Amino acid sequence: YGVVSMDTLGSDLLNWDTLYLAGRMHKPTLTLRRDPLMRISKQVNLTHAVRAALLMLPKNFTSEELFRRIASLSFAGDFRMRVGGENPRKVHNIVEAQMPLFKSRYSSIIEGLPNLEYIGQDLLQQNMSPQERAAMLRKMPNNFYDRLIKQGRKAGIKLPPGLGAERVNSEKLVAVDSIDKIATKAVESIVAWPALTQSVKGVLSSGVSKSISYMYAKNSKYRSQA
Known about the structure:
Blueprint: H1 6-15, H2 36-55, E1 60-62, H3 63-72, H4 90-97, H5 99-112, E2 116-120, E3 123-126, H6 130-137, H7 142-154, H8 166-175, H9 179-206, H10 208-225
Antiparallel strand pairs: 1-3, 2-3
């Protein structure tokens, strides 16, 4: 729980500065006060989420697989998922319990993207043309794109520097088989530090013993349900 300024929220929705707010708003949320500018920012954020998920998915996939991938973005790089601080089935449970809400939230975006279409009931197909996927990549937030370039270079892809290299670099990135892993690492690099700092703040504000007790209770709960 927390309070943030509209400017901070809007920037994260549009630019994916930390994905701490934007990632949470990939899932169904309740809006208490409507703001025209924020409504547009929210739609842009959801479109970014679909495009990021498409980089991590094969040609054909179900709508549930798409929503699971979208819901997982805000947990990528979150150390709590690695140390048992969260239910490992959390993403599955979020999507399974709210499928109608996910479909309602993303239906207009799915229908509006030229490189994505339904080919059956709950079965989707994306255009795997390198040119189409590269064009989609260039519409992503700069922070995500820059981190994708960094991860691509770490993976051994030769990507020249400079703004003029965007087209060439995007086409090189989407052409490699490991683009799904590279895109995942790019998201992880955005999420990791904010998730860690917020968790530390939580421990400091509530106390170590309470935090450990809370983590133990959560672990016990999902193990009993497994």
